[in-house]
Amino acid sequence: MHGFANPTRFLKLARWLTPLLLGSGLVVAAIALAWGLFAVPPDRLMGDTVRILFIHVPAAWLGMGGWTAIAIASLVELVWRHPLATVAARAAAVPGAGFTAICLLTGSIWARPTWGTWWVWDGRLTSFLVLLFLYFAYIALAGAVERDGASSRIPAIFGLVGAVNVPIINRSVVWWNSLHQPPSITIGKSAIDPAFLWPLLAATIGFSLLFGGIVLARMRMLLADIQAEARLRRKAMEA
Amino acid sequence: MTGALWRIFLRDCALLVPGGRGGGSLLPLLFFLAVAMLYPFAVGPDAPLLARTGGGVVWVAALLAAILPLDRLIAPDLERGFFDQWALRGIAEEAVMAVRIVAHWLSFGPLLMLAALPAAALLGIDGSTLRTVELGLLAGTPGLAAIGVLIAALTASLRSGAALAGLLLIPLAVPILIFGAGSLSTGGESGLALTAAISLVLLAITPFAAGGAIRAARD
Fold it and tell me: What CATH fold (topology level) applies to the domain A18-39+51-178+193-215?
């Protein structure tokens, strides 16, 4: 792992990995969404509204995955003081917040014809809204730390404490069992027909590749910022 | 070590308790009552509506009031180097933070429970609901105090910390609010038990997280 502690080596790898992930992610996601939109039959109960789930469900997984990434990167930073972990955690926050917002939006659009309302104060919805606000708080904190030149370990601590929220999201379905259906996909068995499962899996892979690509692109951007700032400081010292 | 911690505890209490040397004030309590007063102005003086929703309003007011003292909790001592002195004496930051959580709760929790009485009168909350609200506050305010100390420690070294504190505190405090206010509607006991459980989890985690934040602020 410390082989990549050197930003130069990481940047060399990221330079070709970023367009590869973004490109393949776009292609796979496009295929999966086209498959979901045109090839999959309408659901027996939900009709054509089922098709939005091919965006909604991967976005939900990535919304949670984004905070898991922040938590792991924060742990790596706090324990091993890995220099790239700070950048990785900050880079994962924005796409994580984006996918959480997409999940809430698509869920809301799906709920309007299905449940007859835009918003239901159900456990899973509510905890995703809280997750979105956690993302906002993390992004604001990381920005303030950057601006004030404070220790980058401060947002890492908040990231780990916030990670306590991610299991609450998973358990909330059981706790507040209300309008939202219980989980349909569990390890080992699935209540979803294979006709829906395969495009869903493809969409998840596509969105995950996109997520990885965005994180790498943002890491490169943040590292470039750091380098530019260091260069300006050196110039100012020489002048 | 225990003797030193006891003296730190007494000092924290003297600082934080309203009217104390550190400028600890009644401000959060007055703010709490002001929010309770504001709500009937907004929705109208409809007694059944106020009685039905009043318990939840008390909870929201308590959560908002918990944001107010955050910028006085850690930042002044961090600036004046108290934490460095204690670290030099070999007192762990985690222990200092645990002591501070207790002191902060003492200066905040019981007074809030007391202020809930006039708030309940203003909102027309009946006796059994008031009992649940008070029990819920007893179970929930230690968790709120723990989050407060954590957020104060995280933002103490930031210039824009005070503005951030509210945004950081609210999502972390949501489970306390959900279970605390949830205890008012159905069952009661399970909501109270879950509020207490969340409080205990937070009390177990936050001294370590806040101690880490104090150490991180040092470099």
Answer: Four Helix Bundle (Hemerythrin (Met), subunit A) (1.20.120)
Mark which residues 149-188 of A lie under 8 Å from B by CB. 150-151, 153-154, 156-158, 160-162, 164-165, 168
Contact B158 A78 (CB under 8 A): no
- For the stretch B159-174, pLDDT in tens is 877 788 989 998 888 8
Q: Which of B138, B31, B22, B20 is nearest to B73 (CA)?
A: B22
Whether residue A173 is predicted with pLDDT greater than 60 in this model: the reply is: no
One DSSP character per residue, B148-168 reads HHHHHHHHTT-TTHHHHHHHH
CB atoms B157 and A151 under 8 Å: yes
Q: Could you tell me the CA-to-CA distances from B145 to B83, B137, B161, B172 in Å, in that order?
A: 19, 11, 17, 12
Task: Domain ranges for chain A, please list them.
Answer: 18-39+51-178+193-215
Helix, coil or strand: residue A189: strand
Alpha-carbon gap, residue B82 to B80, rounded angstroms: 6
